[in-house]
């Protein structure tokens, strides 16, 4: 009997000990509270201008013996006028040869420097960039100068470029998201280059070599260019190379200023895709230039701008209406805009739109929780710093911010501004920027089944086209 009692006592004690172990382990393994974000400060940079007006920014950065070189020219589709994609055709043809070297020779020369040469055409900014070994930075500067100043623009390459662009156009205009984007842009940016997403095939087929040469001559010049070198480099050698390669470039015209009109009458556009299993929905509106307004950036992130956003949790995780909804904030020089886009099941088109409106109103009616806002602040500060952790990220970020007129001061103040945000700030930003009555919408889908659903959505029922 004593042995039984002793065993029972020992078993009970052991059980109590086991029960206590998880609590102790949990206490030991609980992660520490996150520290306050450290202020971010850009490395010491050198900024100056050449006599012809070209701006230069040099940033010693990192320890790897490489340098990222980026030339941002303030031109692109903003200068297309009615010739949609003429900027794209010009950029594509420039890459086919420059300074007497064809595309293959340019690529081989860049590879010998430990990198590659690229040119990208955007709405307001065309960039030429290389990432090379430090000792090759002066030679790379000369190669970029050839590309920007002395493209060959040969007739024999024009038809190859045209064929590529025609193929890209055909593919893009066959997808519902591109169809929706085209229609949405035409509403948000009426009678403006931002609103002309695609040319017609006839337009693209008709552009001539003289038009391409004319576009290059009119829009590429020193006064429109900001040159960046980021990484490890010999500053004296780099400055000498920039002066030698770009000092004689003509200034040319100042960057184009073409404010986009605001469409004060919201519209609903319906585009039929009979039998489609999904509807592509884009809804949104123009917003005030939000570049420096971190409150609306944070509100957009919480509302729909990242995977754990409210709209995503609602119509993806909870309702299963869509796989990949996303809210985007477009910081554009001539007018910013906000949009929520989602490919939803056709049978759930109306309910999905109703839930999106519901989430916008919920943020307007009540501030988010402190925990939500803290999560957004951590996310924004983290992605911001990570984005600047590479030479390329630093160069691209600076080029974009300089284009928007924000510059290095914005970057140095960003973490502090985000860290100071409150729930009331996010609520006020959504009230200010997203009044429901100004929102336009495009729906691309099977209208025989979708339209009756839209007629039950009070926010747009009266705006449906007859």
TrEMBL record:
Residues 1-26 form the signal peptide. Keywords: Hydrolase, Metalloprotease, Protease, Signal. Residues 92-196 form the Peptidase M16 N-terminal domain. The keyword Nucleotide-binding does not apply. SUPFAM superfamilies: LuxS/MPP-like metallohydrolase. InterPro entries: Metalloenz_LuxS/M16, MPP/UQCRC_Complex, Pept_M16_N, Peptidase_M16_C. Belongs to the peptidase M16 family. Residues 208-378 form the Peptidase M16 C-terminal domain. This is Insulinase family protein. It comes from Novosphingobium album (ex Hu et al. 2023).
């Amino acid at each position: 009997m004593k042995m039984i009692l002793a065993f029972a006592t020992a078993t009970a004690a052991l059980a109590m000990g086991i029960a206590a172990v998880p609590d102790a382990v949990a206490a030991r393994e609980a992660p520490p509270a996150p520290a306050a974000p450290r202020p971010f400060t850009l490395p010491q940079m050198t900024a100056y201008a050449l006599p012809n007006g070209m701006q230069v920014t040099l940033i010693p950065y990192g320890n790897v013996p490489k340098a990222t070189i980026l030339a941002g020219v303030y031109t692109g589709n903003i200068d297309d006028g009615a010739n949609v994609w003429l900027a794209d055709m010009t950029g594509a043809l420039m890459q086919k040869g420059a300074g007497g070297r064809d595309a293959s020779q340019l690529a081989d020369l860049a590879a010998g420097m430990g990198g590659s040469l690229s040119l990208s055409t955007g709405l307001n900014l065309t960039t030429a960039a290389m990432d090379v070994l430090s000792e090759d930075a002066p030679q790379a500067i000369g190669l970029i100068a050839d590309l920007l100043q002395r493209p060959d623009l040969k007739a024999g390459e024009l038809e190859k470029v045209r064929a590529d662009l025609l193929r890209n156009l055909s593919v893009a205009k066959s997808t519902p998201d591109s169809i929706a984007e085209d229609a949405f842009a035409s509403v948000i940016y009426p009678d403006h280059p931002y609103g002309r997403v695609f040319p017609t095939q006839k337009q693209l087929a008709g552009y001539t070599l003289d038009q391409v040469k004319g576009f290059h001559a009119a829009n590429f010049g020193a006064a429109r260019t900001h040159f960046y070198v980021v990484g490890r480099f010999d500053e004296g050698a780099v400055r000498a190379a920039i002066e030698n390669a770009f000092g004689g470039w003509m200034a040319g015209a100042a960057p184009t200023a073409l404010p986009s009109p605001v469409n004060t009458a919201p519209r609903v556009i319906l585009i039929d895709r009979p039998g489609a299993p999904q509807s592509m929905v884009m809804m949104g509106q123009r917003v005030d230039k939000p570049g420096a307004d971190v409150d609306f950036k944070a509100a957009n992130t919480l509302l729909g701008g990242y995977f754990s956003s409210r709209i995503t949790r609602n119509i993806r995780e909870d309702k299963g209406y869509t796989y990949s909804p996303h809210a985007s904030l477009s910081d554009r020089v001539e007018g910013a805009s906000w949009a929520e886009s989602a490919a939803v099941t056709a049978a759930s088109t109306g309910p999905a739109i109703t839930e999106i409106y519901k989430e916008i109103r919920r943020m307007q009616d009540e501030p988010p929780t402190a925990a939500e806002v803290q999560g957004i602040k951590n996310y924004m500060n983290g992605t911001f710093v990570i984005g600047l952790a590479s030479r390329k990220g630093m160069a691209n970020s600076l080029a974009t911010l300089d284009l928007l007129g924000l510059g290095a001061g914005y970057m140095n103040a960003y973490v502090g501004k985000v860290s100071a945000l409150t729930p009331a700030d996010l609520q006020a930003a959504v009230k200010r920027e997203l009044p429901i009555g100004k929102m336009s919408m495009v729906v691309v889908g099977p209208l025989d089944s979708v339209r009756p659903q839209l007629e039950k959505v009070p926010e747009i029922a009266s705006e449906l086209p007859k």
